[in-house]
Amino acid sequence: MSSQSDELSGVAVHERVANAVVRAIAEGRYRAGDKLPTHRALAREMSVSIGSVTRAIDTLSARGVVSSEVGRGTFVRQQAAPPGEAQGFVDLSINAPPPLVSAGQWAEASALANERALLLPNGGYVDFTGTPAQRAVVANWIGQRRSPMAADDIVLVNGAQQGLHLAFAALKDVVRAVITEGASFPGAIAAAGILGLPVLPVARDDEGPLPDALARLLAETGPAAVYLTPVCQNPMGYETGPARRAELARVVADKGGYIVEDDIYGIYSTKPGPLYRDLVAERTFFVTSFSKSLTPLIRLGVIAPPAAFMASVRRRMRAESWGLPPLTAELGAAMIETGIADAVLPVLRTEALARLEMTRTILGLGAMPMPAGAPHVWLPLDPLRAEQLARRASEAGLRLGAPSTMQVGPEPVGGLRLCIVAPPNRRQLERGLRILARLLVEDEEVLV
Ligand SMILES: Cc1ncc(COP(=O)(O)O)c(C=O)c1O
Fold this sequence. Notes:
single chain, Aspartate Aminotransferase, domain 2, Arc Repressor Mutant, subunit A, 15 helices, 3 domains, 44% helix, binds pyridoxal-5'-phosphate, Aspartate Aminotransferase, domain 1
């Protein structure tokens, strides 16, 4: 066991030790009733002081994770069954990080958020784009990791989903369609659909849309919103490299279109280089959120529209919801300011990588588009077989998203998306993958 991934995180040592023990339990290395190593052994193993281990164990006792018995030692308590486990199914249909924020971290961030929220003017009816202080914290955090931005460049929104909807809505009267890959994120398809914008597929390879094909399509449609996910495309999982990004940005600028850049999986990026927002700022609506990099419990999202569209995005945000709940915004900012968001990132990436390896091994997969870890994996299959497998999997206790919900254009979707970080622990993921491996073999036998 190691608290290494929390290194440089700014999180207190005892909290890091507590997190490492919680992770070890989540990964099945300690089960209910198991005795933990002595404080001295844990201190040696994690290279921390015995005092830090004692504080960590006290914290975990208070949270009901372990119980200490005088003269006998510390034991793992029976945990409430994670979602799905009690019902006996494994859910690989929804992309969400496992619960990596500990109860102690929630308490710490909530305390700060409550303190700040109680000081907000007008009982909390503040600027509906987020207060300047909240926006500054969020813009700075994203700016340092993805694309430089200032507080006034962004609007805080209810999840990336609202960000996408606001972007398409702002473009509704200046574009004729939304263009994206033949398999795309159902939420984006829904957002375009409700605004009456047709969604058209563009030919792609394993790095994203093909620039020539996009140029031809834009020439046919006239101005369009091109919905692009530079990192870990949903559902196909690939990352678009810098050269392709530059080519696509050039095509969109030449043809007078706009880019809606969905960077929600940006924290998994392995390729360097500027994002679309950096390449064609005046034509790019940048959207992201903390749902995939921290937790969807807050649903704190961000839109950074081109400057010329800021007023229209603000007007719509005001009309739709007068901003997101101020307490949510404070909680998101507090997660950043306490260092918790930074502490979770390396843990999440390490977890995703371990789960990717597990998936590769159990399903016997070859090269992966995101070798450094990804929250979802694409399993290419004949379209009919993919749809049937999703149905049969659900009867066998495994939930998979129906490929048809991701379809754009006439071609049925040829594959299954496996949300490998979704199960609360690796044990559940393994169970789900084994069900899928069995179904794949049975399926082959039937085909033969
Ligand atoms: C590519 C993509 N964009 C946006 C979203 C929506 O995220 P949020 O929960 O922040 O609304 C998701 C969620 O699954 C997604 O996969």
